[in-house]
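TA notes, week 10

Several of you asked for a full example with nothing omitted. So below is the full record: structure tokens for the whole chain, then the designed sequence directly under it. When grading your own attempts, check the secondary structure regions first.
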């Protein structure tokens, strides 16, 4: 009989069976769960574990009896007064709130630029994301990056698209 079969029957890990077989019964040559033991040796190991379980069962019963003693009711403290919850949301202050108020105050629609202007500068003037400016330029067939300069005529077309006027 194999060690793993014996461990299934006894519901004991195979390593523990190997250890008991070596220590208690002096069975040599057991190295893994696939090692074999004779029927006589297997019967000895089974008897060992059956006796061990009976003694463990009696110990468990004694422990259960001890645990079943009635508990004394614990004193409960008065429930704590509810505290008002703090507002954990971040308050908007600083740049965002200032930026909105300036934007509302300053509604400039006319800008004065030179012969050329970079895409970044025009996006800052119009207060539009530079990606939007680049998308519009691409739709017109102009391939430009954020650092490239565009001429005055292209700037006029972009300004009309975003409802601004541009003068030289």
């Amino acid at each position: 009989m194999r060690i793993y079969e014996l461990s299934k029957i006894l519901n004991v890990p195979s390593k523990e069976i190997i250890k008991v077989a070596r220590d208690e019964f002096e069975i040599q040559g057991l190295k893994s769960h696939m090692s074999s033991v004779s029927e006589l040796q297997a019967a000895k190991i089974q008897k060992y574990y059956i006796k061990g379980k009976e003694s463990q069962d009696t110990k468990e019963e004694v422990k259960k009896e001890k645990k079943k003693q009635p508990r004394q009711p614990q004193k409960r403290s008065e429930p704590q007064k509810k505290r008002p919850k703090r507002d954990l949301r971040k308050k908007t202050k600083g740049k965002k709130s200032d930026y909105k108020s300036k934007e509302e105050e300053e509604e400039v629609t006319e800008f004065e630029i030179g012969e050329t202007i970079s895409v970044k500068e025009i996006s800052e003037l119009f207060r539009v994301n530079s990606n939007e400016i680049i998308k519009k330029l691409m739709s017109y067939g102009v391939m430009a990056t954020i650092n490239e300069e565009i001429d005055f005529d292209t700037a006029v077309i972009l300004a009309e698209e975003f409802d601004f006027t541009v003068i030289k």
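Residues 106-167 form one domain. Use that as a sanity check on your answer.
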